[in-house]
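Issue: ligand-bound run for zinc ion - logging full I/O for the record.

Environment: standard queue, default settings, no custom constraints.

Inputs:
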Amino acid sequence: MTKTQGYATLGAKKPLEPFTFERRELLQDDVSIDILYCGVCHSDVHQVRDEWAQSVYPMVPGHEIVGRVTAVGKDVKKFKVGDLAGVGCMVDSCRECGSCDKDLEQYCAGTVFTYNAPEKHTGKMTYGGYSKHIIVNKHFVLHISEKMASPEKLAAVAPLLCAGITTYSPMRHWQVSKGHKVGVVGLGGLGHMAVKWSHAFGAKTVLFTTSPNKTGDALRMGADEVVISKKANEMQLHAGSFDFIINTVAASHDLNPFLQLLKRDGTMCMIGVPDHPHPPVDTASLIFQRRSLAGSLIGGIKETQEMLDFAAKHDIVCDVEMIAMNEINQAFDRVVRSDVKYRFVIDMATLA
Ligand code: NAP
Ligand code: ZN
Ligand code: ZN
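Outputs:
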């Protein structure tokens, strides 16, 4: 076992604070990574505050991890010491079910999430990326291009490991491309990446926001138009016109006004996971235009690598605000107020 340092919360109503814990010994298929940057996902806030009612404490959150490899097990050939590496939301899965066979490890019944999940090897809970160091099975470690090695770039790559793949995967699944009209609901960590992907894939992109002051940023990121979703008259102008809408909102809200904006056969894909359910959906609006309401969970490891390679090729990264580790509790409060542009990333060098 190796001692390491991180930040943990000891209970739903407690702040995050310094925490010392042990990582497992390096196994033959493991990669050991010194963490340089870790993104702050709204899922970290939900789980630290037990909003999904499944939190186990102490909890070390963090699943948008980038760093450098410091050691590899004897059966690891695809990484070597000194490589840049990334870890996202998963660190293990069963590897033999129908989902694992199809590179969709996120839908495996045996997925081990990067934190707040029982680890197969030790039976203890996994601890995430708000820490100095992590050990992960090679299958769940991603390559990061040396093109992204500057500190500014690397920090802006970290949130691709969750916010990036969670928006990239459904857009690929529903084949967003030129000629499509795509809506993105919410300009936060996930939403701002959805705008960037949709634009990069050639679709006409419309951002729906509750924050008028985000309009300029959305246009700069590639949105063709911005709609203030609270204004019914602005919404009405887009009725029946969207092929695909990706809804990233982290809170319970009325989905019906957005369903009305879909074309016949259009789909709204939900990726936000609020702490309590949305108001009921009017199924008539689905039935009469054969519309679909769907959902999507992060993305598989193969597709995450594809996304990272696409991002490096097209120079697409996240817009980030760097924070020191001891600023994390204020950062959580700002995430809840939708006051982040557009992802906090922790500089792990600030963790003494
Ligand atoms: P975030 O940065 O807080 O962004 C969420 C955005 O939703 C806000 O910026 C805000 O955008 C909008 N919003 C917030 N409260 C709202 C309200 N009451 N009504 C309408 N809009 C509201 O969060 P995130 O990190 O992007 O995560 C978004 C959600 O996705 C979270 O629930 C998270 O747990 C979930 N998530 C799911 C997956 C998955 O695999 N499906 C993966 C990661 C995260 P505007 O200011 O533009 O309105
Ligand atoms: Zn996340
Ligand atoms: Zn499986």
